[in-house]
Design brief:
Number of strands of chain B: 0
CATH topology of chain B: MetI-like fold
Number of domains of chain A: 2
Structural class of chain B: mainly alpha
CATH topology of the largest domain in chain A: Rossmann fold
Shape of chain B: globular
CATH architecture of the largest domain in chain A: 3-Layer(aba) Sandwich
Number of helices of chain B: 11
Number of domains of chain B: 1
CATH superfamily of chain B: MetI-like
CATH architecture of chain B: Orthogonal Bundle
Order of helices and strands of chain B: HHHHHHHHHHH
Largest sheet of chain A: 6 strands, mixed
Number of helices of chain A: 9
Strand content of chain B: under 5%
Helix content of chain A: 10-25%
CATH class of chain B: Mainly Alpha
Radius of gyration of chain B: 22 Å
Distance between the termini of chain B: 16 Å
Oligomer: heterodimer
Structural class of chain A: alpha+beta
Helix content of chain B: over 70%
């Protein structure tokens, strides 16, 4: 549907986008996730046509579009600050793109009314666009783009300016709208939660390059490098060394001791230094020593963070400077971990908890 | 535009501001005062109240001709200098180009050049090309004077429209020229009107270009200057000056008001 092939962008000496190749399917909700300066917005603006590509190709349905101007691309965009036309009312904002197409006036009015219905702002057509709230402007920006039935809708941090509650509501609406219309959405965001909630697939970007593309679950459970693992959710990292070969692989993990690996080591050599990543919620705590053969290690609780539905316990273990973060579901009422600071505790984990990453 | 609130009364500063206003406006206040005075001489005590000098103005054929010349020239100057300044301001506002700040400085330079120097140099140029001096040459000369002002008024408005709105228009299928007429120009329109008023006022009151480049045709400021030689005409000139001051104040206030409307519109757009 939309293909990026070895797309590069340089601003003078600064390489903003490095050799990005992506295949995005029709009807897919795809996100570009990265910190500011990671190149995600530049990449989106190249797809829209506001930035030229330094090298590489962008194709839609097999047609190269990287050299056509933005007004000729079958793509529409929802801008970061909405870019609502301040001199037009809501109706004229939504109908803006129809004028060029020569849609008859009566038909335009009907389409705009249908759009207002869809974005749950019926009767708002004659309001001045600048009198709307942020969330309403957001919807108008969406309607203005969708009324042209684009093949691809680009969204540049569309929810960034909204407060948390409204943002979560708009996320749900965006998702169901996209399902309903079957249009390909490409979303740029720096909010990992947003990317995971909304997307079918996510491309994580860093320093202009795509470092991993996967489903939200894939990214979360099997990050392929430290940056992804750290960026998506929170993560404990341990230095480790791989020993043995084939089925006899095991890892010597600083702070956790030896650990059998079930085919996770890949083709790594005996003695290879690696990074072990374990999610705080993949670890469990027990006040007494667990029964063998589950791997476990003893530590001491150093701090506790209460976070409502969950709480984070920090456990100091031998052989590791930083405490290990463990996330557990908070108990209502009688909390067994209340006042647990300083108490000894056993950490345990299942065989699937470990992700092996290359050490830097 | 931000309004400043002083939490404490600052008496010395208020006095200073008052003195400042008196210094600027006191001389001007005498003009309308004596324009209604029936005496020939500008001196106290005032004699009786009269409209005579105002009525007298309309019986001067030469003055009417100078007035009409001034209006014609000012209309052309404001229209053409605004027309020329729009693309220039837009280019400066939008495009990255090498030596941009130097270019802006160069455009603004005539603002600080003495009018007499501009006047003589353009006169020299006209002579060089054997151009007959007329109201056309006055118009051209005054456009040189007005362009920097026009760009100074327009530039913030075009910057204020913001690239995002033009990108949105392009994204919705409009090519650049149509984007300009559907988005950029309507949003910057108060600024354009302010520019027309401002350049009209400047042209209407301009002396040096009219003096050097006018040939046999005279504009209102030239007329006033020539009539100053005749003491009998002085009260009528005061009446004329009063009318001009009133008219200019209205235009300048209107253009400032428009500029402020433009500012609020573009701020909303940039949000």
């Amino acid at each position: 549907m939309i293909s990026l092939r070895n797309v590069n962008k340089a601003f003078g000496r600064v390489q903003a986008v490095r050799d990005v190749s992506l295949e995005i399917a029709k009807g897919e909700f795809f996100s570009l996730l990265g910190a500011s300066g990671s190149g995600k917005t530049t990449l989106l603006r190249m797809i829209a046509g506001f930035e030229s590509v330094t090298s590489g190709k962008i194709l839609i349905d097999g047609q190269e579009i990287q050299d056509s101007p933005p007004h000729l691309r079958p793509i529409n965009m929802v801008f970061q600050n909405y870019a609502i036309f301040p001199h037009l009312n809501v109706r004229d904002n939504i109908a803006y793109g129809l004028q060029r197409l020569g849609t008859p006036k009566a038909e335009q009015a009907r389409m705009v009314d249908a759009m207002l219905e869809m974005i749950a702002l019926p009767g708002y057509g004659d309001r001045r666009a600048t009198q709307l709230s942020g969330g309403q402007m957001q919807r108008v920006a969406l309607a203005r783009a969708l009324i042209l039935k684009p093949k691809v809708l680009l969204l540049d941090e569309p929810l960034g300016a909204l407060d948390k509650q409204l943002r979560e509501q708009m996320q749900l609406e965006l998702r169901s709208l996209q399902r309903q219309l079957g249009i390909t959405f490409i979303l740029v965001t720096h909010d990992q939660e947003e990317a995971l909630t909304l997307s079918d697939r996510v491309a994580v970007m860093e320093n202009g390059a795509v470092i991993q593309v996967d489903t939200p679950a894939g990214l979360y459970d099997h990050p392929t490098n430290r940056a992804v693992a750290a960026f998506v959710g929170s993560m404990n990292f341990f230095d480790a060394t791989v020993h043995g070969q084939g089925d006899a692989y095991r890892a010597e993990i600083a702070g956790l001791g030896p650990q059998r690996l079930n085919g996770q080591a890949g083709a790594r050599q005996d003695g290879a230094r690696v990074l072990v990543a374990i999610r705080p919620e993949s670890l469990t705590l027990s006040p007494t020593a667990p029964e063998a053969p589950q791997p476990s290690v003893q530590g001491r609780i150093t701090a506790r963070q209460y976070m409502g539905g969950r709480q984070m316990l920090h456990v100091a273990v031998e052989g590791r400077a930083a405490p290990v973060a463990v996330s557990i579901v908070a108990q209502r009422g009688d909390d067994p971990w209340d006042g647990s600071e300083g108490r000894p505790v056993w950490l345990t984990w299942g065989p699937g908890a470990i992700s092996l990453l290359d050490a830097e | 535009m931000a309004s400043y609130t002083f939490h404490r009364k600052n008496r010395p500063l208020a006095l200073y501001a008052g003195a400042f206003a008196v210094f600027i406006y006191l001389p001007i206040m005498f003009i309308p005062l004596f324009s209604f005075n029936s005496g020939w001489y500008v001196k106290f005590p005032l004699e009786s109240f009269t409209f005579h000098w105002y009525v007298d103005l309309f019986q001067r054929e030469q003055l009417m001709r100078a007035l009409w010349n001034s209006i014609k020239v000012a209309l052309f100057v404001s229209f053409f200098s605004t027309l020329i300044a729009i693309p220039a301001a837009l280019a400066v506002a939008r495009y990255r180009m090498p030596g941009k700040s130097a270019a802006i400085g160069f455009i603004m330079l005539p603002l600080v050049l003495p009018g007499i120097i501009m006047g003589t140099s353009i006169l020299g140029l006209m002579n060089w090309f054997n151009v007959t001096l007329s109201l056309v040459t006055v118009t051209i000369g005054q456009m040189v004077i007005c362009l920097p002002y026009a760009i100074a008024v327009l530039l913030p408005r075009f910057i204020g429209v913001g690239r995002a709105l033009e990108e949105a228009s392009a994204d919705l299928g409009e090519p650049p020229l149509r984007t300009f007429f559907r988005v950029t120009l309507p949003i910057a329109l108060p600024g354009v009107l302010a520019c027309l008023l401002m350049t009209f006022t400047i042209s209407f009151e301009e002396y040096f270009m009219a003096f050097f480049l006018g040939g046999t045709e005279i504009t209102l400021p030239i007329y006033i200057w020539t009539q100053l030689r005749f003491p009998d005409d002085f009260p009528s000139l005061l009446a004329l000056a009063t009318l001009i001051i009133t008219f200019s104040f209205i235009l300048v206030f209107a253009s400032l008001r428009l500029a402020r409307i433009g500012e609020s519109l573009t701020q909303e757009g940039a949000r």
